[in-house]
Amino acid sequence: MIVFRWFKNALLFIMKEIASFLIKIVMVMVILIILLTVFVPKTPVEKAPIRKNTYIELDLSNPVGERGSLSIFTIEGEKVNFYNMLNYLDKGKNDQRIDGLILKVDSVALNRAQVEELGRKIKEYREVGKKVYAFSRGFQNRNYSLAVNADEIIMPPSRGAGSNISGYFMELPYMKRLSDKIGIKYDVIHVGDYKSYGENYVREEMSPEFRENITRLLDRIYYNFVQDVSVSRNIDERTLSRKILNGDFVLADAFKMKEEKLVDSLMYYHEFLKERKIANITTLGKYARSVVGHQSSGKKIAVIYGDGEILYSNSGRGAQQSITPDTIISELNMAVRDKNVVGIVLRIDSPGGSALASEVINAKIRSIEKPVYVSMGGTSASGGYYISASGDRIFAERDTITGSIGVVSLVPDVSELAGKLGIKIESVQKGKLSGIYSITDGMTKGERERIYESSSKIYSEFKERVSSGRNIPMSQMESLAGGRVWLGEEALEKGLVDGIGGLQDTIKIMAKDLQLSEYNVVEIRRENPFEKLFMNYKYLENFYNKFNSLLNMEFNKEKDMTESELIIKPVTYLPYRI
């Protein structure tokens, strides 16, 4: 007993010392920030000179977020969000100093919807007579689908430069046997036969419904890819598909790619610049600094971002991107209160999450008198579609992942594992179903039936929201729901969206519908307080980024999405990135 008491006191002492140390660190940081804010002069933003005959070099290897940052701070760091990127490319398209674009596409960290919208922007450059070059040391389907929009595709003349263009391959771990060996069991309660979230914990192989769903999606994505390449490269579609499926372009070198007319020229980058007489190059970030200006007053269309998993609360998530009712409703209220805002475009890129949070946001959007249009990003599925269904009009890209109308609850049972570890769980209980969410007591038939009943009601509410928002009879909803996942082009056929297009398209359609000849677009978001504090100090950017990364680390697992939002509570969630 004495040993246990000593061990307990020692552990408490260590924890107190660690907590004390962390508090002191935070206090020092706060004092340092205050001193820097008061005494250090703000870093002026200088416009970068842009010469004539300049090309904008676009390196797409880093993710371009939807929400991003709206301050000049990030533009100084040559970072812009996706909408800003499109806008600055628009300015470059009409700038006589800009001769064209150079796409560096060794890898492309954009989602499919972003690739589609950026691809159209590239074509606009070509339509006004500006050259677009795509340079890469290696191609896969994703980066090649962007490169085909260029005037010329270039690779280095090396056997080490090559291709892995192929059909498709997707693998998912099914962990039931592992869970059984460890002693962790799961109760996964699906409402919707095609709702696949959590099935890999309770099955040893893929369900027929999930296989059917995912195969259909991947087939259509592949067909769209082949069709785009066929048209852009003037290659017979059947011949191209036969060669791709035969593996002809897997580990194919640059010479093979040129022989097959998938690449135009073989040159090293410096040779390409010299051969095409390109002397002046600027990055998009530097170009953005040269054209930053002020918006005029007048009517405005507000853009609000819903980017990430849907949580009811962001507590414990640090600076991680997520969608919460508190944030979205606050931003919507800002747009509603602004008399100059005549319409709102909600950009949704989310696999879903909390069913309750999705319903709260849906209800808020329905209450807004100003028109709200929804622009779907790469994924707007499950809870993401729950929110989207409240929009007056919805637009998606051809390959946007959407639908997944269904509900699932996942409750783990670690009682067997606890027994193996020599842990005996004792409980005190009063009242029927009071221990329904215990992860150490096992779920009874009655508890499972109660969760299914609750989830079924949420599922019915989900379908009702879609039926009402999309004007689809309830009698037709089950054939569209049940957890089925659709591509944007399929969703258009099913009446789940109104049109195919990106964020800029949605804004232009809203302006046309509202008969606006002149208008400004404003991005509304609640700023991260750390970013707001640092935005005027260029040399603090690195410190902010490192501190932001620390906030993203999962020190508090109790607040992690997987444990507090996606397990136990009913969720509308699509966990797979396709």
From TrEMBL:
GO terms under cellular component: membrane
InterPro entries: ClpP/crotonase-like_dom_sf, Pept_S49_pIV, Pept_S49_SppA, Peptidase_S49, S49_SppA_67K_type_N, S49_SppA_C
Transmembrane helix among keywords: yes
Principal location listed in the UniProt entry: membrane
An annotated GO BP: signal peptide processing
Protein's UniProt keywords contain Transport: no
Swiss-Prot/TrEMBL keywords: Hydrolase, Membrane, Protease, Serine protease, Transmembrane, Transmembrane helix
Gene Ontology molecular functions: serine-type peptidase activity
Name of one Pfam family that matches: Peptidase_S49
Gene3D superfamilies: 2-enoyl-CoA Hydratase, Chain A, domain 1, 6.20.330.10
Residues of the Peptidase S49 domain: 126-275, 366-516
Positions annotated as active site in the UniProt record: K195, S382
Sequence intervals crossing the membrane: 21-40
Location of this chain's protein in the cell: Membrane
Similarity annotation: Belongs to the peptidase S49 family.
Name recorded for this polypeptide: Signal peptide peptidase SppA, 67K type
Organism: Ilyobacter polytropus (strain ATCC 51220 / DSM 2926 / LMG 16218 / CuHBu1)
Upper classification of the organism: Bacteria, Fusobacteriati, Fusobacteriota, Fusobacteriia, Fusobacteriales
